[in-house]
Amino acid sequence: MWQILVDVWIVAGLAVASATLPGTMELLFLTLGGVLPAKRRTSLAPVDRPSRIAFVVPAHNEEAAIANCVKSLHQCHPHTRTPAVFVIADNCTDQTAALAQQAGATVLTRTDAEQRGKGYALDFAFQTLLARGFDYFIIVDADSSVTFNLLHEFELAFASGAVAVQCRYKVRNAEDSMRTRWMNIALMAFNVLRPRGRDRFGASVGILGNGFGLSRSALETVPYHAVSVVEDLEYHIRLVRAGLKVGFIDAATVFGEMPSGGAGVSTQRARWEGGRFRMIRQFVPTLARDVARGQFRLLEPMLELLLLPLGFHVLMLLAAASTPLLAIRLYSACALAVVGLHLLCAIAMGGGGWRDVSALLSAPFYLIWKLRIIPRLLRNASGSAAWVRTERQPLKGAHK
To answer: How far, rounded to the nearest angstrom, does the alpha carbon of residue 79 sit from its chain's CA centroid?
Structure first.
């Protein structure tokens, strides 16, 4: 009887370890590429820069943040002309529209009780602005601020022929709590190191939901019909399946405000990661068939989907490490070392410091918290795309 239990334990450990293998390979691949020197970009003269470019800010009840966001966007222009900023006041019941207009934005109001969510808001914005003659769009969340060079860098990327681009996306209030610090470490990995790695090896870097840009040609080829909770991930998969690629802007950053505690943290993570599991279920079989048919450029996007959120990836490796078979334990130890290396490289490439490194010591508490949100995550994995604003602490001022 005991031997049967041991055999079952070994088989279960082997299954869990096998499930983590694609993610481990992806982490190793992207960590190596992320620390290599970035590709050189050719500088273009100012006259070559695109002129019909607009900032698009989707907003749902963001009266506390929207004015600071609009001001930040207006202050990042490199020339005498002021950039066009459009705020999409989507199903708002507060003063978002009025405050955005006072700050200098053009407000597009959208009200639809049935089709609610960021994806619907962006699709509405793109259809409206394409009809008005705009050719390039930079999407920034309403609770964000940007570096002064952001518009300059996007103009250069579009002028060089990019159809879609993504800049760095980091946490603006990383010092507020241990959870926001952990979120910043996660974003330095997910939104800095990994895009650098993909860009270095010529893969599409992904769309991260904030600080990305799209051209008219991209939107005409693949309309923004992405309405899941993680509409950015959904749209990126559709882009790469259509043969388009997203480039990376490593020299500019958008900073997003994150909840520092309370229910907002759990709500946000459960929505993001639940939506990601939904995309795994929906797209991995399709991408696997595409790769099997010879479309090898889709291998990396498939591996990216198979890499679970890092906390769950680590939990699975720890479970595999508990099995009695030495080979599984050795693999788990090596894979955990890859995770550690990945996080340290992310902190280094993302501009972090020793306080971020020391925060890694609290990883066990973070993993326990991740276990606690699993039920809510599973509910979100099959939920709708309704736009639920994450509760945050009051803003403390713009970060330029």
So the answer is: 29
Quick one: tokens of 328?
Answer: 């599984």
**DSSP single-letter state for residue 129:** H
Output DSSP code: residue 174: T
Q: What is the pLDDT of residues 253-268, one digit of tens each?
A: 999 988 765 555 555 6
* Sign of the CA dihedral with 258 first, then 91, 147, and 104 last: negative
The closest alpha carbon to 368, from 230, 171, 175, 178, belongs to 178
Distance CA 245, CA 165 (A): 8
Q: What's the CA gap between 134 and 318, in Å, rounded?
A: 50
Question: pLDDT, tens digit, for every residue of 150-181?
Answer: 999 999 999 999 999 999 999 988 888 888 88
The values of phi and psi at residue 388, to 5°, are -110, 115
The model carries a pTM of: 0.88
Cα separation, 88 vs 70, whole angstroms: 12
Type and span of the H or E element at 359: helix 354-359
Judged on CB neighbours under 10 Å (0-12, 13-18, 19+), 1 is exposed
